[in-house]
Design goal:
The complex is a heterodimer. Chain A is 76% helix and 4% strand. Chain A is mainly alpha-helical. In chain A, the strands form two sheets. In chain A, strands 1-4 form a two-stranded antiparallel sheet. The termini of chain A are far apart. By secondary structure, chain B is α/β, with parallel strands linked by helices. Chain B has helices at 40-47, 70-74, 93-99, 108-121, 123-127, 138-150, 168-183, 195-201, 219-224, 226-233; strands spanning 2-11, 14-24, 29-33, 55-60, 63-64, 78-81, 156-160, 187-192, 204-209, 212-218. Chain B starts with a strand and ends with a helix. The chains are: A mainly alpha, B alpha/beta. The complex binds adenosine-5'-triphosphate and magnesium ion (MG). Magnesium ion (MG) binds at residues 40-41, 83, 160 of chain B.
């Protein structure tokens, strides 16, 4: 029973990371019908932007003084920076290609991912090798009748929930969110209603990239490591979760991320040699969904193409 | 108030609007009649900036607007009831109404008043305000599209075949509303295939064929015209 509960916590942790990547991914699909294949690399970019920031803060002696607050500020700064990156990607890459067939834009995002990876590898000192990522999250753990609840896991789960709830609020209740949904349902009519489509698409890129940055640094601090090419795996997991949830479906992406996390953790634990094949299980799940339920697990989209 | 001067529109290489000129004065209902594929919807798209004109000029209140972005053009006081109604199917009825207001005007109180006016006019919309608009019938969607257009009390209303697919009773009702809006001060550009109905309420009209204006004139002139009579009234 205890092992089971322990696994449950691990699964929730992995699920959180996947969901966070997946909701960003699905937003791009929902609003401009684009699978952004640089999304996973943007996560990793977040970690490589965070490390120098952290190093600098340490040098200034800020980290030992009032660590929690400083780290919070660093995280906010990082979210801001990756958001800025999203705006840059929009301006440089997306805007000129918006009128082109989507496939071209999709390929451009693949290239953008490649550029991020290579740039890190070349520019970052010793960038080809794995880097130790600073422990941003509280260490230690809570012991509840034999189950260990790491403060880091709990923080990640908590922060993910906060991010997802805020995003849901933005999408459902704010003017920007209404604009995003309108554009996703009918871009021409959205413009006839006075929606500035360019501004709406930029905000999708800013929010999507900021979420990716957040996911990246949470992932990095949990595993204590980052590497220039980790994004491919993270991106594919986010993509898979988004597919399971139904591409473009916000709630579905969360459910997909949770499902994927559970499949991986429990397959690794209960199937002999499962940990070697955990990716196989998650991709089997994706394929099964593509065949049997292509509209996703919930099949109800708030972003939807008409 | 709206003046198109020799505008030309292309999709790729093919010209679909050939140097068309037309105008709407304040207070008018101007109808554009023409068969399928004659370029009626394209005209609307060009006026609001969704499809660029390659030459010619579009002026709204003497200001050239053809270089502006769609959201800037509609903010000047133009509202569209798009072809096929263009409601947002995955939004509630109330949210659809709000989209007709919130992106251009700010005052929440006015918005809520206008929503109430819409519900007073069409109680069915009020009863189902929280349901997804995609669940409405065709006629109800027209009510929603017209109500959404009225949220901003536009100076100029462009309506692209509002009566398409409606029952005779609803067509009657829709044309009644168009006249009512016009009497309340809105100028209307009415695109229709239902020429009999359109000619019954318009002040002037244009007949479009393959992207050319082949005939234009006052309501009386059009009704009296031999060709129009043959094409549209012969069966009556
Ligand atoms: N996006 C597009 N790309 C290429 N050609 C187009 C496009 N939209 C319309 N056309 C063509 O332009 C011409 C005019 O089309 P338009 O939709 O303006 O006609 P319409 O008068 O509104 O017709 P209907 O009565 O069927 O609505 C048609 O020949 C049509 O095939
Ligand atoms: Mg048309």
């Amino acid at each position: 029973m205890n092992t089971f509960l322990q696994l449950l916590i691990s699964a929730l942790l992995v699920s959180s990371l996947y969901s966070l990547v997946a909701v960003g991914f699905t937003m791009y699909v929902g609003v401009i019908n684009l699978a952004n294949f640089s999304h996973g690399d943007t996560c990793v970019l977040g970690t490589f932007l965070m490390m120098p920031l952290f190093l600098y803060a340490t040098k200034l002696g800020w980290i030992s003084a009032s660590t929690g607050l400083v780290i919070l500020i660093l995280i906010i700064l990082l979210i801001f920076l990756t958001g800025l990156w999203g705006a840059a990607i929009y301006t440089i890459l997306v805007k000129p290609l918006l009128a082109a067939p989507r496939l071209i834009l999709l390929l451009a995002t693949v290239a953008a991912g490649q550029v991020i990876r290579e740039a890190i590898r070349v520019i970052y000192p010793n960038g080809s090798n794995p880097q130790v990522f600073p422990k941003l999250l509280p260490s230690g753990s809570l012991n509840l009748s034999g189950i260990t609840l790491g403060y880091d896991s709990l923080t990640i789960i908590f922060l993910t929930i906060i991010c997802i709830l805020s995003l849901n609020f933005i999408i459902q209740k704010t003017k920007m969110g209404v604009a995003m949904r309108a554009v996703s349902q009918n871009a021409d009519v959205a413009q006839m209603m006075g929606i500035n489509i360019e501004q709406t698409i930029i905000s999708v890129f800013v929010i999507g990239s900021a979420l990716a940055g957040m996911a990246g640094i949470l992932n990095g601090s949990y595993y204590g490591i980052t590497k220039f090419n980790l994004g491919s795996n993270l991106g594919i997991k986010g993509f898979s979760a988004a597919v399971i949830g139904g591409l473009g479906d916000f709630k579905g992406a969360i459910v997909g991320g949770v499902l994927l996390g559970f499949i991986e953790v429990f397959a690794a634990a209960y199937i002999p040699n499962g940990s070697q094949y955990q990716d196989v299980f998650s991709f089997l799940a994706v394929i099964a969904f593509l065949i049997f339920r292509p509209s996703g697990i919930l099949g109800e989209k708030i972003f939807e193409k008409v | 108030m709206l003046e198109l001067t020799e505008i030309r529109v292309k999709y790729g290489k093919s010209v679909v609007i050939h140097d068309v000129s037309l105008s709407i004065q304040q207070g008018e209902i101007v109808s554009i009649l023409g068969p399928n594929g004659s370029g009626k919807t394209t005209l609307v798209r060009s006026i609001v900036g969704l499809t660029p004109v390659v030459s010619g000029e579009i002026k709204f209140f003497n200001e050239s607007i053809q270089k502006l972005k769609p959201h800037q053009i509609v903010a000047k006081g133009i509202v569209v009831v798009p072809e096929g109604r263009g409601i947002f199917p995955k939004m509630s009825i109330e949210e659809n109404l709000k989209t007709g207001f919130m992106f251009i005007e700010k005052d929440k109180n006015v918005m809520n008043e206008r929503i109430q006016e819409a519900y007073d006019r069409f109680p069915i919309l009020g009863q189902r305000r929280n349901q997804l608009a995609g669940t409405l019938s065709g006629g109800e969607q027209t009510m929603l599209a017209v109500s959404r257009a009225m949220m901003r009390k536009p100076k100029l209303l462009l309506m692209d075949e509002p009566s398409l697919g409606l029952s005779p009773k609803l067509v009657q009702q829709t044309f009644g509303i168009i006249q009512e809006l016009n009497q309340a001060g809105t100028s209307i550009l009415l695109i229709e295939q239902n020429a009999v109905k359109a000619l019954a309420i318009c002040t002037r009209g244009y007949i479009l064929q393959k992207g050319n204006v082949v005939l234009s004139g006052t309501r009386e002139q059009l009704i009296a015209d031999e060709k129009v009579h043959k094409a549209y009234f012969a069966m009556d």
